[in-house]
Amino acid sequence: MPDEDSKIDHYVLEYRKTNFEGPPRAKEDQPWMVIEGIKGTEYTLSGLRFDMKYMNFRVRACNKAVAGDFSEPVTLETRAFMFRLDASTCHQNLRVEELSVEWDATGGKVQDVKAREKDGKGRTASPANSPAR
C-alpha cells in the first residue's frame, strides 16, 4: 500500500480467464481485460461468471505522468456451487427433469396424488409427505 504522501494517482487492474492454476503462460488465449482509474487500494469486480475455473489478476500504480510495472500476476479460483433439485420433494407445481425445471400451474403432482388416492395408494400422515414440504 502506498504511503499517504505517495504520488500515486490511480491503479490499473487487468484480469483474464484461464483454464489452469498458476502464473500466466507465454501463449495465453484470453486477452487481458482492463479496468482503469481505480482510486483506492480495494476494488470489487462484479459480473464474473463461473464458466472458467481460474482467473489471472495483475495491478499497477500510476501517477499523472507515467505508469509503473505490473505486479506479479496472481491466480484465483472462481468456484461454482453445483446442486440438483429433487423431483420427489419439490413443490407440487414444479416439474423437475434432468437439467430443467418447469412451473406447472395446473399442479401436475396434485393430479397424480388424487389419482393415487382413488387407487388406495394415497399419502400417509408423515411430515415427509405433507403438502407444505
UniProtKB/TrEMBL annotation:
Span list, region Disordered: 110-133
Gene Ontology terms for molecular function: microtubule binding
Record-linked CDD domains: FN3 (cd00063)
Domain (Fibronectin type-III) ranges: 1-81
InterPro entries: E3_ligase_FN3/SPRY, FN3_dom, FN3_sf, Ig-like_fold
Single GO BP term: regulation of cell division
Compositional bias annotation for Basic and acidic residues: 111-122
Native source organism of the sequence: Grallaria varia
Protein name in the entry: FSD1 protein
Domain of life: Eukaryota
One CC-aspect GO term: microtubule
